[in-house]
Specification:
alpha+beta, two-stranded antiparallel ribbon, 36% strand, globular, 282 residues, 4 helices, Thiol Ester Dehydrase, Chain A
Length: 282
């Protein structure tokens, strides 16, 4: 199934964006942050890079799920459903309001797998982000393409065992939160705002909480518990979706001396939905 896709390996694309003050203002509103300055040259939290470098595909080039149609830059994977499987990100330099940034994206790997829900193909993208003074961040992002939703439920894996939590914060994602994040990132994926599509076409019981939303609010919670720290690196892995309107918790273990710690989000049953290995340091 992936034979014809391997010719896409090594393809690259460059996108330029700006850490503009209006974007920073909107992200501060979404995350309830009153401590982030909007003056040109003011520092921006590292992990807020997630709102930049949207695809911005023309409306005529969108697929039925709201994503850009496959076969332009991303390979024409013959599986219909798409989700973010995980990401690994290391920050090398700070970002400031007004910085012009360039991201080079390379299709680094295409890997077929078989999961609990059937055949899947992982497409790994490597993003290299540079700013006025050189390298800013390197990210590896795993996009998982999945078979159509089955009528019969997929076999359930045993829930991941959670470590002992040093703290727990309630997390209640609602449709407005999902809309504001999708609008900020210009993310058109319909499972995050079109409940009928999410339920009737992709088989979810409710709107799916963006993995990016959970990651953002989990990192924000970690920083509230570590005043003065920044996110220096993290490795996030999606284990199962969270659904809009259902209660969840953001949790963390005790950090080591280097600031490394395990962060995770639990759904209403106590199962881990997303897990992050992060390093927080001044």
């Amino acid at each position: 199934m992936t034979g014809d896709l391997h010719s896409w390996l090594g393809r690259k694309r460059r996108v330029t964006d700006e850490m503009a003050a209006p974007l920073v203002r909107r992200m501060a509103a979404l995350t309830d942050r009153a401590d982030v300055a909007l003056d040109r040259g003011a520092p921006v939290p590292n992990h807020w890079l997630c709102m930049l470098f949207d695809d911005a595909a023309p409306q005529s080039q969108l697929g039925p799920d709201g994503h850009p149609a496959k076969g332009d830059f991303l390979p024409p994977v013959p599986l219909p459903r798409r989700m973010l499987g995980g990401r690994r990100l290391t920050y090398h330099a700070p970002v400031r309001v007004g910085d012009t940034l360039e991201r080079e994206t390379e299709i680094a790997a295409i890997t077929p797998k078989v999961g609990r829900s059937g055949a899947m193909i992982l497409v790994m993208l490597r993003h290299t982000i540079a700013g006025p003074d050189g390298l800013v961040a390197v990210e590896e992002q795993d996009i998982a393409y999945l078979e159509p939703k089955r009528d019969a439920p997929a076999p359930k894996a045993p829930p991941a065992e959670a470590p002992v939590a040093a703290w727990r914060d309630p997390f209640a994602p609602d449709p407005v939160m999902l809309f504001r994040y999708s609008a900020l990132a210009f993310n058109g994926h319909r499972i995050h705002y079109d409940a009928d599509y999410a339920r009737d076409v992709e088989g979810y019981p409710a709107l799916v909480v963006n993995g990016g939303v959970t990651t953002l609010f989990l990192l924000e919670a970690a920083l509230r518990h570590a005043p003065g720290a920044q996110v220096r690196s993290y490795d996030a892995r999606t284990l199962k979706p969270l659904f809009c309107g259902r209660p969840a918790e953001l949790c963390a273990g005790t950090p080591d001396k280097a600031g490394r710690c395990t962060l995770w989000a639990e759904d209403e049953t106590g199962a881990i939905a997303l897990r992050i290995q992060a390093r927080l340091a001044p």
